[in-house]
Amino acid sequence: MKNYELTVLIHPDLEMNLEPALTKVKDLVEKNGGKITKEVADGKKRLAYPIKGQDFAVYYYYEVELPADAPAKIERELNIVDEVLRHLLVVVDERKLKYEAKQAARQAHRMEADEDESEGEE
Q: What is the pLDDT of residues 47-74, one digit of tens each?
């Protein structure tokens, strides 16, 4: 299974009740054998240009793991979902994952060093 990033722009009129639209997206990923590892709600934002007559959209970002045949099926279905104005599904670069893991390890090491220093001062 490969790692992917999925960004979904949801119709702004659904802002008050996003749950059905988000459930459709999640079910679509899981139905095709994928797993959502991270979900970020970026909120309602102004679009750079109108999409389907809308100037705003609600942004959702997902990190997902998908089998090889799933991306094509997911893209095909997202194209016809009325709640989704636009979507982008891209493969995550493995170098990016390694870099983020190194950064997290360095940050954890710094925090441990700071804790050790503060304990020694007391």
A: 999 999 999 999 999 999 999 999 999 9
Burial class (CB in 10 A: 0-12, 13-18, 19+), 77: middle
Q: What is the pTM of this model?
A: 0.77
Helix, strand, coil abundance in the chain, percent, nearest 5: 45, 40, 15
Using the Cα atoms of residue 35, residue 38, residue 43 and residue 44 in order, give the sign of their dihedral.
negative
- Per the document, the length of the chain is 122
Residue 46 is encoded by which pair of tokens? 């102004």
Secondary structure (3-state) at 6? strand
Q: How far apart are CA 118 and CA 41, in angstroms?
A: 36
At 50 the pLDDT is: 95
